[in-house]
Specification:
The complex is a heterodimer of chains A (about 900) and B (about 110). Chain A is an alpha+beta fold and about 900 residues long. Chain A has 32 helices and 21 strands. In chain A, a hairpin with a 2-residue loop joins strand 6 (about 250-255) and strand 7. By secondary structure, chain B is α+β, with helices and mostly antiparallel strands. Helix content of chain B is about 55%, strand content about 15%. Chain B contains four helices and three strands. The longest helix of chain B is centred in the C-terminal third of the chain and has 27 residues, at about 85-110. Classes of the chains: A alpha+beta (about 900), B alpha+beta (about 110). Chains A and B meet through helix 1, helix 2 and helix 4 of A and helix 2, helix 3 and strand 3 of B.
Chain lengths: ~900, ~110
């Protein structure tokens, strides 16, 4: 090692002190020669002859000096720099070529870097110490709600206490729940999110507070009795709303109109993977309310349970413990619950952050990364083609250099250096492109693309840089390989080149074969990408033009969250609703007002299992049913224009009825009532419901059937894949319904801004401290349910467009080169009487063969690969013939154009001149 | 130049240089003369060809160079052995002796 280092220092010195060393060498040699000359002079020789003899005895001075320099070893380093300069000079001479190559590669490299950066940000582990030990523990019920590939889910306090007390695989366990609150600090009021956290949450995360402290054991044990209840601020709220004021501790902030005492500020990183809350509050209720620990509530899921595994404990070991505890619960619980667990195939599962994001978001990003790599490959093939052509043009140069003693290795090395120079330039330009593009991505695309990730901004970090450099190096090697191939194959013709002085003979067959193969390969890759894009566009068009099942026109949606202090009783919330509705309906221009627990295409739906359907086509004692539901007010259906299929909409009787009234959808009716009429049938809403004990006044009853509606977004069909078969049920906002968080739908032809002001005014009149949020026309909301699909489609389309342009350039380049090479041949043919048409045909046919081979390959490849994107398709078959056909025609057309332009040039060749071309 | 002079076996020049430098620092001309003298003019070094060897040995750390005033009063580059060079000299010498005795054996008995 030391020797290596010394050798390197010697070389480096040789490099930088070159001039000095050179002078020393000269002096040393001169001294030696002088001494020999002196010997001869002393022997009595004439000075001139003595000098000649001395030089002869010493040997060939210049060769010896060169050998010495080689011995310094600086040789190769020095040579590299020399060749680097030579490379730069040569590339500078052919600016057009260099610009084309650098631009192509830079764009491709930038694209790859961008997608990689996004992927890296999304899938990167949370910034907690040892994140691989942090797992989410959740209940899954594949038997009731269908199996899904998505990981992650909710849990509850009962499991939390059970596992905390009886499983020792975890260092920390924490239960968290995210909710929206109205926050008032000084004059600013906003709707934002708060994270309720159990004991040990901050230990689990393992990050220190920026300011103050977190919730102590004492705070949890004493609850709210210690004066104002404590709150921990997030870094972002502290910085944005309070300007990072360090005196903020012990100050008061109002959450849902109640004073909270600020005790600390948590760093931004704590919340990055927990829906980025603005506030943290102790999750008091699970410790205070004894019913939260009721064993019978072990399967009502409303919160997230996270655990940090003890050092050295594997996920499997922890799972074994949890399974054992679940089994113990199963053994002690009642028969109904056992039946439910068995039927729903309940299992407690565990997944790390990374696994969860990967299952939710990874697929589309991997697909993008694949596509953008393909574009890079096409770009490389283009550049390789250019290099091969260029190498061919440089045969004479290489031939001369070979004759002068340059070994093949030296020529390959020079190719490598030229490629490195090109790639280095592309890499720098690519970095700049990526930087600019990421700014745009952050601004316009990211939130759409990453609908289910907490990543908000991405930027070029160190791993992106490493990736960029790595890919660039790979590209450099690939390109060197290609350009060297041409060198190797043209080796034999070097001698001929010198004789000819130019390359006027038809170009080497092997090289042409290589180039044709490259073109076919390029076309094939392009076709695959284009078909992918085509299928996605088709899906998007189908989705955006699909009928949501309701009429969002002139409907405005706002959300409201009533503070708990002023609305503790359901009468209060009902009276708020009634007053608001009355005053809004008095406003001229407002046609109708409705309330709902979830806005279609915006909000998630509730899910419930263990429902008994009386008088249906299934036996209520035998088969319990799982449904999705939302709760709506009386005018909901008419406001949104839901088609009524049977029975009636809700009316005042339903509102005042002791028991619930329900409306079901078409799927529900078809699935469980077959040819029976569901209207008037009773429903048991829990497994403990006694089917023999029906009271017409209190038992829930079905009053109507409406058509299916796309609740989960335009592209989710009637249901998403995980809840495919779950029928839909609507409950009524009746006199007992005391929810404080819901949405207001208003149908009005009034302009949006004015309407919004009126509504805010009316709300403020009734309750001043209630902010409205969301506030969007329903049409916009419905359309934005396709945002992620649009973003994804757009990106793939851009990528395949790039691929197409690159391929077209490639085809054009190769044919133009062919035509130029064959000028003499074409001239000869024309002189011998070929018509322009037949020559055009000849050239076009040659272009067409390459393209058609590529096209067929591409179609076959797409046929095999397109099933990969079936997850992203909406009502489109992955082997949809239309997409394949259109893409094939499109590619043929572009390829024809790309070959026609250079071929036409050949027609303008003057035979006389062509034959004279040297 | 007499024709019956021996061509130098490749690599042996290094050994000769190392051996000669064992007796102290010398410059290039000196080394060449010394080789001629000690070998009774049998081995005629192409004098210039010493230098690549010298520079190679210097790079490998077996010898080092310093500039000094020579007997003629002019500045000259003197080479001297490093500790590694001394070891190398004896190792190479042994190897050479082993090799030549083996060759001799073959020539005598083969």
């Amino acid at each position: 090692m030391r020797r290596l280092l010394r050798s390197f220092i010697f070389q480096a010195r040789g490099l930088f002190l070159n001039r000095h060393k050179q002078a020393e060498l000269d002096e040393e040699v001169q001294y030696h020669v002088d001494l020999i000359r002196n010997d001869y002079l002393q022997q009595g020789m004439e000075p001139v002859q003595a000098r000649k003899a001395a030089l002869k005895e010493f040997g060939h001075e210049e060769i010896i000096k060169e050998d010495c320099r080689e011995a310094w070893g600086a040789h190769w380093l020095f040579g590299m720099i020399k060749e680097f300069r030579l490379g730069l000079r040569l590339l500078w001479k052919s600016k057009g070529f260099t610009a084309a190559v650098v631009f192509t590669l830079a764009i491709c490299l930038a694209g790859n870097t961008i997608v990689f950066t996004i992927l890296d940000f999304v899938l990167s582990a949370p910034p907690y110490p040892q994140p691989e030990r942090v797992v989410q523990i959740y209940n899954s019920y594949p038997g009731s709600f269908g199996a899904t590939n998505r990981l992650g889910g909710s849990n509850n306090a009962v499991s939390y206490f059970d596992y905390s007390e009886n499983a020792d695989a975890f260092e920390d366990l924490a239960l968290i729940q995210q909710r929206d609150v109205n926050a008032n600090y000084k004059d600013a009021s906003e709707r934002t999110s708060v994270l309720y956290v159990s004991k040990r949450f901050f230990d689990l995360v393992g990050l220190k507070p920026i300011l103050g402290s977190y919730f102590t054991e004492e705070i949890y044990n004493n609850g709210d009795t210690l004066g104002a209840s404590p709150v921990v601020l997030s870094e972002s709220y502290w910085k944005n709303q309070m300007g990072g004021d360090r005196d903020v501790l012990e100050k008061i902030i109002f959450l849902n109109s109640r004073p909270k005492n600020i005790i600390g500020v948590a760093p931004h990183k704590v919340g990055t993977h927990f829906s980025k809350p603005k506030f943290y509050r102790p999750y008091f209720i699970i410790y205070r309310e004894i019913e939260m620990r009721d064993d019978r509530r072990r399967h009502s899921n409303y919160a997230y349970l996270w655990g940090r595994l003890k050092e050295g404990v594997s996920k499997e070991q922890a799972k074994t413990q949890i399974d054992a505890l679940d089994q113990r619960y199963f053994d002690r619980t009642n028969a109904d619950m056992q039946e439910f667990i068995r039927r729903s195939q309940h299992e407690t599962r565990m997944a790390t952050f990374r696994e969860i994001t990967q299952s939710n978001q990874g697929n589309s990003l991997y697909l993008l990364q694949g596509s953008v790599l393909v574009v890079l490959l096409i770009g490389c093939l283009n550049v390789a083609n250019l290099l091969v052509a260029r190498g061919f043009g440089r045969r004479s140069e290489f031939a001369v250099r070979t004759a002068l003693g340059a070994s093949r290795l030296i020529l390959v090395r020079q190719m490598l250096i030229e490629c490195l120079v090109l790639v280095l330039g592309s890499c720098l330009a690519g970095y700049a492109f990526a930087w600019v593009a990421l700014e745009l991505v952050n601004q316009y695309l990211l939130t759409d693309l990453l609908s289910s990730s907490s990543v908000e901004t991405v930027f070029l970090n160190r791993s992106a840089l490493v990736f960029l450099i790595g890919v660039s190096l790979a590209v450099a090697v690939l390109l060197t390989l290609f350009s060297s191939i041409s060198l190797v194959f043209s080796k034999r013709s070097f001698l001929g080149s010198i004789h000819n002085g130019s390359s006027k003979t038809t170009s080497n067959k092997t090289i042409r074969l290589i180039r044709s193969t490259l073109i076919s390969f390029q076309v094939a890759l392009t076709v695959i990408l284009l078909i992918g894009a085509g299928l996605l566009i088709q899906s998007f068009l189908k989705a955006i033009n699909s009928d949501p099942g309701f009429d969002p026109k002139n409907v405005y949606a706002s959300k409201v969250g009533l503070p708990w202090v002023n609305f503790q009783k359901s009468e209060q919330t009902v009276s708020f609703r009634t007053r608001l509705k009355t005053s809004l309906l008095e406003t001229p221009g407002i046609d109708s007002v409705a309330f709902t627990s979830s806005i279609p295409t915006v909000d998630e739906l509730g899910r419930q299992s263990d429902i008994k359907l009386l008088g249906s086509s299934v036996d209520p004692n035998d088969e319990l049913v799982s449904i999705r539901y939302c709760t709506v007010s009386r005018d909901y259906f008419e406001l949104l224009g839901f088609p009524l299929l049977r029975g009636r909409f809700f009316n005042t009787n339903d509102f005042n009825r002791e028991g619930l009234s329900l409306i079901i959808d078409k799927t529900f009716a078809e699935k469980y009532y077959k040819n029976l009429d569901p209207v008037g049938k009773y429903v048991g809403l829990s497994s403990s419901f006694d089917v023999s004990n029906i009271d017409p006044a209190t038992t829930p009853v079905i009053v109507g059937v409406v058509d299916n509606v796309k609740h989960l977004g335009l592209d989710n069909g009637y249901a998403d894949t995980s809840t495919e078969e779950l029928p839909m049920c609507y409950f009524l906002f009746n006199k007992d319904y005391g929810s404080r968080d819901y949405s207001i739908l208003i149908k009005s032809a009034l302009p949006f801004e004015g309407l919004l002001k009126t509504v805010q005014e009316e709300v403020r009149k009734i309750e001043p401290r209630v902010p409205l949020f969301l506030n969007q026309p329903l049409e916009t909301l419905v359309r934005s349910s396709l945002d992620d699909r649009r973003a994804f489609m757009l990106l793939v389309t851009i990528l395949s467009g790039m691929a197409l342009i690159l391929s077209a350039i490639g085809i054009y380049g190769v044919l133009a080169f062919d035509v130029a090479q064959r000028t003499r041949e074409i001239g000869l043919r024309m002189a011998l009487g070929s018509t322009g048409k037949s020559i055009l045909e000849l050239l076009l046919r040659q272009g067409a063969i390459k393209v058609v081979v590529g096209l067929l390959l591409g179609l076959a490849g797409a046929f095999v690969l397109s099933s990969r994107i079936s997850d992203f398709l909406y009502q489109v078959n992955p082997t949809e013939p239309i997409a394949f056909l259109l893409v094939a025609l499109f590619v043929l057309m572009i390829a024809f154009l790309a070959s026609y332009l250079p071929a036409r040039k050949a027609l303008h060749i003057d035979p006389m001149q062509a034959l004279r071309v040297e | 130049m007499p024709k019956n002079k021996q061509d130098l076996l490749q690599g042996t020049l290094d050994l000769l240089i190392l051996r000669i430098l064992l007796s102290g620092a010398r410059h290039g001309y000196d080394i060449a003369k010394r080789i001629q003298m000690v070998s009774d003019n049998v081995i005629q070094v192409g004098q210039g060809s010493l230098y690549p060897s010298l520079h190679r040995l210097e790079r490998r750390g077996y010898i080092k160079a310093k500039w000094d005033i020579s007997e003629t009063g002019r500045r000259a580059k003197f080479y001297l052995l490093t500790p590694e060079g001394k070891t190398k000299a004896s190792v190479e010498k042994n190897r050479w002796l082993e090799f030549t005795s083996a060759v001799n054996l073959i020539l005598k008995n083969g």
